[in-house]
TrEMBL record:
PROSITE patterns per UniProt: PYRIDINE_REDOX_1
Cofactor needs: FAD
EC number: 1.8.1.4
GO cellular component: cytoplasm
Disulfide bonds: 49-54
Identification of the protein by name: Dihydrolipoyl dehydrogenase
NCBIfam families: lipoamide_DH
One GO MF term attached to the UniProt entry: flavin adenine dinucleotide binding
Amino acid sequence: MSEQYDVIVIGAGPAGYVAAIRCAQLGFNVACIDDYLDEQGQPSPGGTCLNIGCIPSKALLESSHHYQQAEKQFAEHGIRIGQLVLDLATMQNRKQKVVRDLTGGIQSLFKANQIAFYAGRGTLKQNNRVEVIDHDNNSTTLNAEHVILASGSRPAELPFAPFDGKQVVDSTGGLAFDSVPQRLGIIGAGVIGLELGSVWQRLGAEVIVLEAQERFLPDADPAIAKQASKLLGQQGLDIRLGSNVESVNTDKTVQVAYTDGQGSQHLEFDKLIVAVGRRPNSEALCAGDLALTTDQRGFVQVDDHYRTNLDRVYAVGDLIPGPMLAHKGMEEGMAVAEQIAGQFAEVDYDNIPLVIYTHPEIAWTGRSEQQLKEAGIDYTSGQFPFSANGRARAAGETDGLIKVLADAHTDRVLGVHMIGPGCSELIGQAVIARAFGASSEDLALTMFAHPTLSETLHEAMLDVAGRAIHRAPSRKKRP
């Protein structure tokens, strides 16, 4: 006899495990299925983000930043050390411990919320039956009133650069090198390419990033993208825009042929990371007699309530269109659980924070200046540099700025864009402001602690009306 549940969630990444926990909080009997195994062959819920994405990359970014500080910046603070030694094995072990602690925490949360966890691959069948094939090839059939699909995504592969797990790798392989490559190539100057490039450049690799687009970070505000390109270039990241890779061959080295504005080019690397985006894991989610509707790119099509074309079957996270971000998936996981329970819930897709964890960090929410111009929306703007912020000066972290865009008629904050120290945290203030429909004046009239980095946001809001205090007057007319 098969097990019966109110809700079955296929996938235990950020969208899936959050959906499962919220369903359990709402009183549903819940099961969650996930097939990921860690390096020891043990079940490891958490999806790409916790296991091989967001968390391990941030651990290595943190460690490599400390290494770079010790190498180049400690002396400025009066800290002198002897010979600097990189212990990459210890750095990688620390990364894995961080991952194990967090994935183990999810299993504890499942137990605390009485969620049944099945380690294996789940396949949806007729009448909301789900077959689970575990890692010993044993089969179990579960039944559910509702099924939530949250099977996540995987790195996109280029046909002329197949992953071999050794010389040509995806983001997972790019986090697991056991030695620092002397020459590292990266295809793609998006979030993943820039973050992984930063890690290995800090640790001593010569890094060249090949990007097909002519514009750097086209989704970011142009002022922020320009500053980011300058600062990352100064750090040693060689970012080559308008570079269309045509072939990749491996022998003792990785040979990459590409074309740019000057014609045909050729480079050789020790390792090559392909970071050209991700694809939804929508294949083989359903049995052959079920026709789950997807678009040409494989994204599952859903309505405003995350319902698929199949009765009482929902999809969230990287499976559906939109930014492939863990926090976006988490919000959808909570929203779909509450909608199944008959509650009102929605995700504000116009106020999603986006962060690139380079150093300095890059973050934004809302519309860019270019988007406002294209939409014909009248706006005002203000900005303030971290170089004029006391806390940034004290920390020696003065690169970057914060830029605010507000509606010219209502003064409502339409977008906030920043590059600088702590921006992954500072952007949260902007998200909250926009969530409550704040005007730039609202934040200009709010007291911020001194000395803090957040005063840079305060001054940028003041600058919308030409009232910034800790910088020379702008050309704006002051009231």
